[in-house]
Amino acid sequence: MSNKVDFDDYTENYNQLLNEGTRFFSSSEEYFARYKIELVRQNVHSPVGRLLEYGCGIGRNIPFLQHAFPNSTIVGSDISGASLEIARRDITGVEFFLEDGNVDPTSPFDLIFVAGVFHHVPVARRVEVAETLFDRLSPGGQLFVFEHNPLNPITRRIVNNCPYDEDAVLLMQSELKRILRDAALIVEHMAYCLFIPPRLSALSRLENWLGWLPLGGQYWIQARRPA
Fold this sequence. Notes:
It contains 7 helices and 7 strands, in the order H-H-E-H-E-H-E-E-H-E-H-H-E-E.
């Protein structure tokens, strides 16, 4: 595996790099954030008082989380201090903290959102990270994890050509499921997603019927901490 990527090196051009890698699917880098958070909103059926985005980066997802959960207290965390500086500069009404081992939230979260993080976590530490998420959830709290699908050849090409994915080790849906279960989380739902580009929006309803098909660009897992 390549050396660990330092996301501080990519804060200023993160959106540009993302758009260059995914513009064949959507010309707007916002599409992916909106898509995922709408999936989360549709599948949360209990009040969300406190919400954490674990691995929030420069905060691309945060405005969509604010829109989807307007009555929630939203917190973002990341290992990149430079990314958090941009998030704090551009986004109001949100608390951000650095994942450096020195700060840990004292109040639990009803919902934790994690998108594109686990493939950057060293394989030997993945259960440990899942256990951290478990510890931060309130009893009955929900966890939503989105990851790249290694079975999709286009996804693999994007990852292989992306500078900030240089250290990426993709994981199968079944592997992530095992990791979450090893951390004592209860897996409630799994599905593949991102089949149909927005320019074919007339076909978008098919997405709901294709979740079983392991060809989507990504997949997601919904889990919860036991009550």
